Structures are given as structure tokens and as C-alpha cells.
Amino acid sequence: MNSPRPSTPPGARSRQNNLVHTLSLRYLLIVPILLAIATAIVLFQHSDTNIYMLYSQCHARSRIPWLSHIPLLGTPSCFLVSFFGEAAASLRSSAILSVIFSFLAGLLTVSTVEAARICNAPSILIAYPTGLWLIFDLIGGAFVWELIIIPAFFHRSREIITSRRQDLPTSDIPPADPTFGETMRHLTKTSETIAIPFAVALGFVAPSILMLAHTSPVTVLLWLFFPLWTALFRQSARKLTTLSLVRLNGSWQESLHLESSTLGLVRVYLLPIFCSVASHIFLLWSLSQSDDRKEMTRSTLKFITIDAFFVGLTVLYWILVEAGWRVAAVMVLTSVILGPGAGICLGWIYREAMLNLTGAAGSGVTVVAVGADPRRRGSGSEAGEETPLLR
């Protein structure tokens, strides 16, 4: 006989009724697919002969000879480098790109944080994002977020929800279980709070500043491979912390609920928020200057701006589905005031605060599995379908 269902804690029902809990995966993916179709239509409508001419010049080997003459990869490589080089060829366009890059810095930070969480370890697409970021940067653009990355997160969320709706074995669940464990939303190691900002700073922010400050084929080519640099610097930082900091304090090897650590939050999110505010100020200042963009710069920058806009819409939908309209509103409001990079970071922090229903400063997220609670089996109290998944 089933035990009586416990009452839902105040505020939990609204979180439980988020779209990710109430809709199946096929319905959740309708909006990303529509956004991908809209992206293709808008990009096609705003295409012009300048883009085709740029590719034609690379195909004719008249641009960047040392790159365009490489067999097979020369023409597309030359086109990509020329495309972003032309987009950053003026003061106004550099200011606009700085805002877009700050948004990408925030998104890269969030993506890397999610990759480091215990709960996302079973998902290869989430836990190892370097390949998808490379495809996003070199080929796919917004389509990668609309058709691969966001569906991967929705699929993982639905996997967790489906598992919790099934009865669990009677044995106790390990705390680090990626689906039911109490530390499932923790970072795998505390040292990630150093490795992630270090990787984003040297792997993405530094190449971005270099490219905007001195636009050349070499700096653009260096920037294009920022996902590789970010991954390499993150791995290096984790090894360095293991060799040095762990010897001083073993807690660096322990898991950490990031949102329960103020110092950890500052270390991880301070850089993208600062870059966002700085780029926001830079853009506002550039608007008081004369517009120095040439025709080719306008054409290429328009493509990048449209692509970034649809990535932003996709991320906004992601937050709306998983955390509700309040978190989405916070992200939009802070993006307007402090820039989109700060918006995604502060919105993500608020998202985790909304998911952590206990609000415990040191314990982080406590998971309640639908069907059984390993911590209460001895008392005869079991969770039911009305019990919140996170509390």
C-alpha cells in the first residue's frame, strides 16, 4: 500500500509546473526548430552580394594568399578569417562585436559550469562541449544551439525526471549519483572555480581583445579556435591546482555546490560580468562617434548580429522552460542594463537559486526522488508524484 503523499512545500508547485516538467521532449523542441527555421529565413533575406564576393575572392586566391592556397581547406578558411576580419574593421563594429563577445563569454562560462556538474556527466554533448563550440564558431552558428545544445539539455532534464518517476531500489543512493544523489548539482571539484574562469580568460577573452584591438588574419585565426584554447587551459588549470593547491588543502578535490559559495560565484562569474559592463559602456560611447563602417563591414556584421540575436532568443527560451518567466525576466532586465554577458550570468545564478528550494547556505541542492526517499525509508515516509524533484 502506498504511503500518503506528502504536502508540497511552499513555492515548490510553481517550480514543478515549469514546462520541462509538464511537456514531453517532442513538444519542448518545437520552439527551437521554429527558431532555426526563422534564423535561416532572416539570414537569407539579409544576404547580399558582398558575402558572395568575399567567398569568390578567397576561391580565386586573391585574399590572404598564405591561407587561401592551402588545399581543400584554404578557401573556407580564408572566407571565415576574412568574414570576421571585415566585421571588426571599424570602431563602431568593434564596439558591437565586443558586446556580442561578452555575451559569448557569459554563455561559455555557463556552458562550462554545466559541463562540470555531476548531474550532466552522463551526457556527452553537455559534459564535453568543446566540439559543439567549434562547430558553432566555424560552421553552424545559432543552429548548433537551436538544434543540438538546447535539445541535449532538455533531453538530460527529461531523463532525470523520468528516472525519478520510477521506483528506486531499496539500497541507499550514493550522494554523487548524477540523477538522484544529493550532490548532483555540485561541481565535480572545487578547483573548477579556478579552472573555469582561468580558461575563459585566456582561452576566449584574451583572443577576443587581441582580435578587436589589432585585427589581422593571424589574430582572427587565433580567435576562431577559442573552444580549443578554453579546453586546454581548463585542463591545465585543473592539473596545476591538483599539484599545488590540493597539497595545501584537500578540499579543492571535493565537490562544491557553486551557488552556495559566494567566493566561488565571484571567481567564476566576475570576469564575464565585468567584460559585459565594459563592452556595454564601450558601445554607448561609440554611438556618440561617427559611424565609420564600410559596406563590407556592415554586411558581415549584420550576419553576426542576427546569429547572436537568435542564440539569445534560444537561451531565453531555455531559461523560460527550465526555470520560469521570473528568471527569464531577470535575464532580460540585467541584459538591458549591464549587457547580455551579465544578463546570462546573473540570470543563471538566479535560476539555480530558484531550483534550490531549501535555500541552505552550505548543503546546496537536496534531491528527492519520486517514488522513494532513501533518507526516510526507515521512518516509513515515501515521496510521491507530488513531491518536488528538487527541494
Automatic annotation (TrEMBL):
The keyword Transmembrane helix applies. It comes from Apiosordaria backusii. The keyword Transmembrane applies. The chain crosses the membrane at residues 23-44, 64-83, 95-113, 133-154, 194-226, 268-288, 300-321, 327-350. Keywords: Membrane, Transmembrane, Transmembrane helix. This is Corticosteroid-binding protein.
